[in-house]
Each structure stands twice: as structure tokens, then as C-alpha cells.
Amino acid sequence: MKTLQVVEAIKQGKFDNQFLEIYADSKLVAYERTRYIQAIQRYNLAFDAGTGYDIEIFSAPGRSEIGGNHTDHQHGEVLAASINRDAIAIVQKTNRPVVTVLSDELNSEIRIDLEDLDRQKEEEGSTAALIRGVLARIKETGYSVGGFQAYITSDVLIGAGLSSSAAFETLIGTIVSGLYNNSEISPVEIAKIGQFAENVYFGKPCGLMDQMACSVGSLVYIDFSDTKRPKVERVQVDLEAQGYSLCITNTKGSHADLTPDYAAIPEEMEMVAECFGKDVLGQVSKQEFMKNISMVREKVGDRAILRAIHFFNENERVRQEKDALIQDCFSDFLSLVKESGNSSFKYLQNVYTNRYVRHQNLSVALAVSDMILNSRGVSRVHGGGFAGTIQAFVPDDLVETYQTAMENIFGPDACQVLKIRKYGGIKVL
């Protein structure tokens, strides 16, 4: 469709049902109308496109980790969900072997020559590296690549634990799949491509959970015991039918100087694994570990032991959470989420750093959540921990109260009320 036709159709409400289907919240329909129209207008300005050009629109969501705190890097199991916050791209296919991307977060356009997709050392850590890495891996995998120009806007907040980079990687992969491969690159393959781009080109040694949740969509159970062929299973859940909303609160704690805290978690878990001649805890049985705690404790110390206990129990908990949802036992699921949070606090110990005990943003957020929700809802640390975000499942009638309380402490817009989105990376138009 031409840009003018798309804008008029959106204004007339012809996309309202589609927006409701994608974003799973009637309150967001008007917002998405405005957002999409503004994105098209910015595309027109950025590329001097006018109103007579054919465009296509693609979307990729952010994600929320539901279960499996710090298990994926040990080849464990996770539950993760795509959310109704996304990155969207207004796209036009071109005949030139160049990909040009502008976004609301970039100061200037990024141009990638499709005849030069080798890793560029100077791009490491940049958006250009992610784009080039995705394009390179798609080509290496045997799929077609070609030129396009795109304007991208995202409401997946950076630094809020919702995986904005994975959403971006998924979006680029979905665009290329749609434009040049008849949308035949599978969501799982797009996720692997995104991970490759982030690991090799961007220079961040991330696991696969983020990309998989963004690409596949809905709530997914993932078993990483075989990292080359992870087992992925969609799990159906309707939070609205249960009368609950997913709330993510950004406590706005500083991540500065926390790298040693984050790094210590996989390092200590792997120290335990080494006691059994293995690389990661996912290769060690819980029974073998329990039989040899005394020996392991002597070699690696107590905190590593506690973190290993968290891993083994959390892995089992993920399976129990999945089964509870499949069996429609939502109250059991909530209890398990609470257990996960308690385990992260007591055993994994990633709620605050013991180097800066004056600053315990996550602890405060969790404590206040307990006071507000009482026995009706649950909360847990979300993502890497130490700073950043918490997650809460909040009864719909308490959402306003909960959001107000969180934002009174952590500032305006600190608490996002989210829904689980059934779609991963998709072509909207």
C-alpha cells in the first residue's frame, strides 16, 4: 500500500482490530494509531519519500523472563514471554545492494553495504554491528538478502530489562525474511541469527533466551541442554482471563560497577561444575551434587554452593510452572513465581550487591510489592538483578494502586503495565 493510503486507513480505524490482536489491550489501540502514523510521517521525511511510495510494516516485541533466573547460561531451562511493547519498522524494498536504517534513537542513518558484510572491529557495541551481523548470518545460512530502507521506532525501553537489542535483531531478521525469503525463515532460526549477531559482531556473550522469546512470541518454554538445537514449546496463557496484569518496575538503580557482580554468578556456577569435570551446571545431576556438597563446598566456598542450589531448584521450578499453566492451575503458577523470587534473593543473591548496602532499590521494590499485594499477587527480581527491574503479577483491580505506589518511589513511568503478546516477529502490513 502507498504511504498515504496506509495513513488514511489507520485514521479511519481499519487497522484497529489488527492492533488489538497484536497488542492485546484495547487501551493501546488509540496510542498505536498515533504511533504508526507518526512513524510513517517520519519515514517520509527521513527518506524524502512523499506519499506515493509502497511501504511494508514489520514488528518485533520485547520480552519478559517469567521463570529461570540465571539458568540459560548454564544450559538450563526458562520460561519467557513476548510483551506488548515492540519495535516497528516502516520499510521500502530497494534495488540497490545497500541497507539504510534510521531510528528515533539514532543521530544519523546507518548504511550497510551488502557486498561488505565482514565483521568490523570498530563497530563493536553499536547498532550497525547488530544489523551487519544479522545480514551476514542470514546470507551465511543460505537465505537471500537485499536492499531496503527503514525507519524504526521502539517503545521497548533500553535498560529496562525487556531486551531492546533482541527485539531489534528480531526485527531486522523478520524484515529480510519478509522482503526476500517469502517469510520462510523460521522464528527459531531468526533467534539464532540474532544471537550470532550479538555474540560475534556486537561483542556481547549473551544466551539465546532473549532472542527466542522476541522471535517466537507468546509464552515459551525453552530447554537449552542442547544449545545448537534448543527445545522450544509454546505455552498458552491468558492473563486477562485470569484477571491479572504483568507489571515491570524499573527501579532506576545504577548498573555502573556491577559487572563483577554479574560475572561472578556464571563463574561460581561453573566452578561447581568443574568439581564434577563438567563445563556448566546443566551437565551435572542434582543428585550427584547433593551427595558431594561437602567436597564441593571445601573447594569453591559457600556462595557458589548456594547459587548452585538455586540453579537446580529453579530448573525444576520452570518445568513445574509450565505444567501449572498447561493444567490451568494459575494459583500454583503464582506460588512458583514467588518461590523463584525468594530463591533469587536467598540463594542466588542477585537482588543487591553486598558492596553497596546503602543502595538496595530492588529490595525496596520487592518489599513494597509484598505490602501492597499481600497474598493476592507476587513479585520477583527480573533479569540479571542487582539493579534494574522487578516483575509482578498484579490483580487487575490493584494495578492502579500498585503502579501509583511504585512510581511514587521510583519516579514517573517507572512501572509499565504489560500484556503477553501472542506474536513474535511479524509483518503487520
**CATH C-level of the largest domain:** Alpha Beta
Please tell me the total number of domains. 2
By CATH, the topology of the largest domain is Ribosomal Protein S5, domain 2
Task: Report the span from N to C terminus.
Answer: 8 Å
Largest sheet: 8 strands, mixed
Percent of residues in helices comes to 40-55%
The number of E-state strands comes to 12
Structure overview:
The protein is of the alpha+beta class. It contains 15 helices and twelve strands. The chain has helices at residues 3-11, 16-23, 29-47, 127-140, 164-180, 187-202, 209-216, 239-242, 259-274, 286-291, 293-300, 302-326, 330-348, 361-373, 399-410; strands spanning 56-67, 77-93, 98-103, 110-113, 148-154, 219-223, 231-235, 244-250, 378-382, 389-395, 415-418, 426-427. The strands form two sheets. Strands 1, 2, 3, 4, 5, 6, 7 and 12 form an eight-stranded mixed β-sheet that branches. Helix 9 (259-274) packs across helix 12 (302-326). The longest helix has 25 residues, at 302-326. The chain is globular and about 70 Å long. The protein starts with a helix and ends with a strand.
